């Protein structure tokens, strides 16, 4: 409890390359991620900070990443419409704002492109992320791919509707009765 | 009681498998301490002063005899043969081994129980009125609604990493026994003038280091919209609650910072999008939830039996004491609700041994349709006992040490585990409770005092509800020494109020003496049948302060 803010080193035993899971399968990532707020990176295609992307929104080799405190206004959502993908940052895995952002992007604004989780993306959060509309998961470097894939299917039932499922369990029960 | 169907069972079983895998990865060094932390907390596992602590969920305080027997077995097999009922209607094990926890969870799943979201920054176990479904003053039975909330909040994908923990309490009675004003969300069911069922929705209450009383977000929410409205509130909190300082992260701080109007405006704006969405409840869903809480097959109780019961009460003083304090009126004539006291001097308030659990499970089967409720005052209730069986039940409870006729009195202390178990504690709390119980054990004196809530917490976190005790005791740390701060005038009922600190804190040995002085002032100043709280409110803080700090 008292050690809440203390950062623990990741254990050394795990693989050191970061992996991308897309639609439940491991894929090779063609995008580079840049956190530089001012300059565009050399390599392309690149995911860049939202503010920087907005200056170059017409380029199809750039895509934005949203900080977790982004206020997703209708204007912003309309601008994101043309992005090849939208990444949402998890600065710490305990920052749960990204789940709401993803749901709003999908459910409220109907964004149909890739929504990618970046940052502190850990195995034990993937199931919830998927339910909230993330279809691409850029795992933190130390995360084991095999366990990550397994975690996606940890549950076969859920009580609430979310992006993956439009029907709450109470409605399903009534339908099946 | 709610019974799982195959969906509930599958979910709980899959949760056990998931945690087993997480524990394996942790023990193998593949899951770091920091990453494991929220995972174990959301499965009820704390790391405490002496050992891990496991908090088992008892949804809205309802237990079956089978479940209680299973809990007894678990405490024998994995712990030291006892458990601790908490103010949030849960059960805590103080001595499990960390590696055993997946097995414990698997055993719980076999009796439709779990420890999901009993801790961590997520929506916690929903609490309610221990007399739900049987109270005379009940307008609407809250249990089906609690169950709908339980399902909605369980593994909610969007709300597993909130800024801070989130607690919901529901009442459907005129008298609030669920402390809805000091929860993150408090819900009161009522019927409007047209007889339509509605919710009064409060938000922003809470205890901890900055206690606050919840304010009304919506006075008259139609029942169909319960879940979408809750979702809107929690979503606003998830987005805007503070994450930079964990002491300022509860929803109460957000409500306070925005003001209730602005907070409500944001909720309504969010809700406008969610309203009438797939989570809108319909009669079918609510009726289905209600089928889990049928009236038990009560038998008719003859008028002569009621007369005999009243007569026994006249004749037998000890029985009368038990009835007056521990037996509650029931909506059905001839039936009563009986409170089993878990307050004994030999044990911490709320503690229960495995043997007692087994015995209570049997008693519940004999006298109460196999159902037990846990109260937030850390006692147990058999909710449906016919009056002609109360005498026998009383005798059997007495043999078990659970017939202490002190429910609602000064001796019915709410107390957190404190320094004996909890690593956050500033001071011990259980020995304080015991010292007070010892000092004021004369029953006639206790009865003369009437209802007084005395609540003790070992630190600012307020697990022992000291802010809402008529008398509140808080352990504080001064340069490494244990002191106790005393506050007066708190109350968790409808006329809710937060206690006011009396003055400089006291040594541990002096606490019972200080309480004695406070009680003297009350006894001298009270008018007729006036309760402690009312006398305090009438004569004011100063009179108590002067006496206590007089040289
Ligand atoms: C022994 C291990 C325990 C630990 C480490 C612990 C930890 C905490 C912490 C840190 C808080 C403050 C949260 C906040 O202010 O946001 C808190 C509040 C609380 N805890 Fe505990 N607790 C423990 C045991 C208990 C027990 C045994 C009970 C019931 C008897 C309990 C019931 C509560 C309640 C009712 C609150 C107040 C909720 C509020 O602030 O609204 N806890 N606990
Ligand atoms: S009030 Fe403090 S000492 Fe008591 S259980 Fe809670 S955190 Fe521990």
Oligomer: heterodimer
Compute the number of structural domains of chain B.
4
CATH class of the largest domain in chain B: Alpha Beta
Q: Average pLDDT of chain B, to the nearest integer? A: 95
Please state the overall shape of chain A, judged from the principal axes of the Cα atoms: globular
Distance between the termini of chain A: 46 Å
pLDDT < 50 runs, ≥5 residues of chain B? none
Strand order, largest beta sheet of chain A: 2-1-8-7-6-5-4-3
Please provide the count of β strands of chain A: 8
Query: Which series of helices and strands of chain A comes N to C?
Result: EEEEHEHEHEHEHH
Helicity level of chain B, as a percent range? 25-40%
Strand order of the largest sheet of chain B: 1-2-5-4-13
Instruction: Outline the biggest β-sheet of chain A.
Output: 8 strands, mixed
Percentage of β-strand residues of chain B: 15-25%
SSE topology sketch:
The complex is a heterodimer of chains A (about 180) and B (about 550).
Chain A: E1 20-22, E2 25-27, E3 32-33, E4 46-49, H1 50-55, E5 62-66, H2 74-80, E6 85-90, H3 97-108, E7 114-119, H4 126-131, E8 136-138, H5 145-151, H6 169-176
Parallel strand pairs in A: 3-4, 4-5, 5-6, 6-7, 7-8
Antiparallel strand pairs in A: 1-2, 1-8
Chain B: H1 6-27, H2 33-41, E1 45-47, E2 52-56, E3 62-64, H3 65-78, E4 82-85, E5 91-93, H4 101-110, E6 127-128, H5 143-153, E7 168-171, E8 185-191, E9 197-203, E10 215-222, H6 226-240, H7 251-258, H8 260-274, H9 283-290, H10 303-315, H11 317-326, E11 327-329, E12 335-340, E13 351-353, H12 354-367, E14 371-374, E15 380-386, H13 390-399, E16 414-415, H14 430-439, H15 443-449, E17 454-457, E18 471-478, E19 481-488, E20 500-501, H16 511-525, H17 532-539, H18 541-549
Parallel strand pairs in B: 6-7, 7-8, 16-17, 17-18
Antiparallel strand pairs in B: 1-2, 2-5, 3-14, 4-5, 4-13, 8-9, 9-10, 11-12, 12-15, 14-15, 18-19, 19-20
Helix pairs in contact in B: 1-2, 1-4, 3-12, 6-8, 7-8, 10-11, 16-17, 16-18
């Amino acid at each position: 409890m008292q050690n809440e803010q203390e950062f623990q080193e990741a254990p050394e035993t795990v693989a050191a390359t970061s992996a991308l899971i897309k639609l439940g399968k491991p894929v090779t990532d063609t995008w580079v991620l840049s956190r530089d707020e001012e300059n565009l990176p050399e390599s392309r295609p690149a995911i860049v900070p939202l503010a920087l992307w907005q200056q170059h929104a017409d380029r199809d080799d750039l895509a934005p990443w949203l900080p977790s405190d982004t206020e997703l206004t209708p204007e912003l959502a309309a601008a994101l419409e043309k992005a090849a993908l939208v990444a949402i940052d998890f600065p710490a895995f305990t920052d749960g704002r990204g789940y709401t952002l993803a749901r709003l992007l999908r459910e409220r604004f109907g964004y149909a492109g890739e929504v990618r989780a970046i940052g502190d993306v850990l195995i034990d959060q993937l199931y919830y992320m998927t339910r909230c509309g993330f279809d691409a998961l850029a795992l933190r470097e130390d995360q084991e791919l095999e366990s990550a894939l397994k975690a996606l299917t940890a549950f076969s039932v859920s009580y609430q509707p979310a992006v993956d499922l439009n029907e709450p369990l109470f409605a399903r029960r009534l339908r099946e009765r | 009681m709610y019974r799982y169907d195959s969906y509930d069972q599958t979910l709980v079983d899959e949760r056990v498998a998931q945690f087993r895998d997480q524990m394996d990865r942790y023990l193998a060094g593949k899951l770091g301490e920091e990453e494991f932390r929220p995972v174990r907390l959301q499965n009820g596992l704390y790391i405490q002063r002496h050992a891990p602590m496991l908090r088992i969920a008892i949804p809205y305080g309802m237990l079956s005899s089978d479940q209680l027997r299973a809990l007894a077995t678990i405490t024998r097999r994995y712990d030291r043969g006892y458990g601790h009922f908490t103010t949030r209607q849960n059960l805590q094990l103080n001595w499990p081994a960390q590696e055993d926890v997946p097995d414990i969870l698997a055993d719980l799943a076999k009796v439709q129980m779990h420890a999901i979201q009993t801790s961590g920054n997520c929506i916690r176990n929903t609490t309610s009125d221990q007399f739900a479904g049987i109270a005379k003053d009940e307008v609407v039975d809250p249990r089906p609604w609690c169950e709908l909330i339980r399902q909605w909040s369980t593994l909610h994908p969007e709300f597993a990493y909130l800024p801070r923990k989130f607690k919901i309490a529901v009442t459907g009675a005129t008298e609030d026994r669920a402390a809805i004003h000091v929860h993150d969300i408090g819900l009161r069911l009522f019927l409007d003038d047209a007889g339509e069922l509605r919710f009064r929705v409060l938000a922003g209450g809470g205890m901890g280091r900055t206690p606050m009383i919840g304010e009304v977000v919506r006075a008259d929410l139609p029942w169909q919209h319960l879940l979408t409205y809750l979702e809107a509130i929690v979503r606003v909190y998830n987005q805007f609650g503070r994450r930079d300082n964990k002491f300022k992260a509860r929803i109460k701080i957000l409500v306070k910072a925005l003001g209730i109007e602005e907070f409500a405006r944001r909720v309504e704006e969010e809700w406008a999008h969610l309203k009438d969405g797939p989570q809108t409840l319909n009669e079918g869903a609510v009726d289905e939830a209600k089928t889990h809480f049928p009236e038990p097959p009560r038998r008719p109780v003859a008028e002569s039996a009621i007369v005999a019961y009243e007569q026994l009460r006249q004749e037998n003083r000890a029985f009368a004491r038990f009835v007056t304090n521990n037996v509650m009126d029931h909506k059905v004539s001839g039936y009563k609700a009986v409170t089993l006291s878990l307050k004994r001097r030999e044990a911490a308030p709320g503690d229960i041994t495995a043997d007692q659990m087994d015995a209570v499970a049997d008693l519940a089967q004999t006298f109460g349709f196999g159902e037990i409720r846990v109260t937030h005052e850390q006692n147990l209730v058999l909710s449906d006992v016919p009056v002609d069986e109360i005498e026998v039940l009383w005798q059997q409870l007495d043999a078990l040490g659970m017939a202490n006729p002190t429910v609602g009195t000064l001796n019915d202390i709410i107390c957190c585990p404190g320094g004996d178990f909890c690593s956050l504690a500033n001071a011990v709390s259980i020995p304080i409770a015991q010292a007070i119980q010892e000092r004021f054990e004369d029953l006639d004196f206790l009865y003369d005092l009437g209802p007084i809530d005395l609540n003790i917490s070992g630190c600012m976190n307020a697990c022992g509800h000291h802010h809402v005790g008529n008398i509140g005791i808080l352990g504080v740390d001064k340069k490494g020494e244990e002191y106790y701060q005393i506050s007066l005038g708190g109350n968790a009922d409808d006329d809710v109020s937060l206690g006011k600190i009396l003055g400089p804190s006291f040594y541990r040995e002096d606490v019972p003496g200080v309480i004695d002085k406070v009680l003297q002032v009350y006894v001298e100043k009270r008018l007729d049948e006036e309760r402690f709280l009312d006398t305090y409110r009438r004569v004011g803080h100063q009179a108590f302060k002067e006496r206590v700090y007089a040289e």
